[in-house]
Amino acid sequence: MWLPLLFFQLLGVVGSNQQVLGFLGESVTLSPALDVTQRNISSIKWLILSNDTWIATYQGGITNTNHFWQYRGRLNLDISSGDLTIKNLIKKDAMKYVFEVGFQGDEEISRKFVLRVEQRLAQPRVTKHHGWSEDGSCTVTLLCSSPNASVNFTWSSTPLATILFEGFRANTAYLLASMRADQVVSFTCNTATALESTSDTLNVECVREPIPKPTPHPPHCVAFGYGVLLGSCLGILLAMITYILRERIEDCIYYLTDK
User: Fold this and answer.
1) Any idea which architecture 125-205 has in CATH?
2) CATH superfamily of 2-118
3) Is the pLDDT of residue 15 over 80?
């Protein structure tokens, strides 16, 4: 989830211009902060583009928020306070706005606003890149990536883990940490800009994983030895058969000769 450092909008005054911050796709309200106590508003005008283009007006009891094509269907004018709400912000909405209000009795007040429109900071993502156990401890490598550019990364852990190395590259942060075996640690990656911050948390459990035993395969030298042994046995057996048959053949020849 995102945690804004500033509230829904950022207000400040630079000279006579009031600075307002809005976020893409969201709504923002330009508020003149009028004191309308015991005063009746007779007219309201919101203008842009060198103060000569109306975008929202209230005159003669009629409200019109469809003067300019860019804002049609996205404006709401509060005639009791003069507040102008712009919905579904786009980049082109970032510009100077002028507010003019007339009261009964010909009194007029004006305000100037400068609207900035920024992209909301997206949530980063933490993943376990590598992990291994050794000598009763567990070493893990975590990767934190952010879709936003120019963000500041910070890491935290609960309970506290031993940080061995931290690295940063482009929109990615790396963390090498050591923790005790059979321990669960929550690692949090925080990303922040000057306007807001957000974070992501990953629970990492250090468990000794059994090393799978490889399937035994006889080495080539052993297989060769088996072949030599088998060949020797067959040779001896063949020699014995030949010796036995030779004696019988000689006996048969000797018997026939005597006849």
Assistant:
1) Sandwich (2.60)
2) Immunoglobulins (2.60.40.10)
3) no
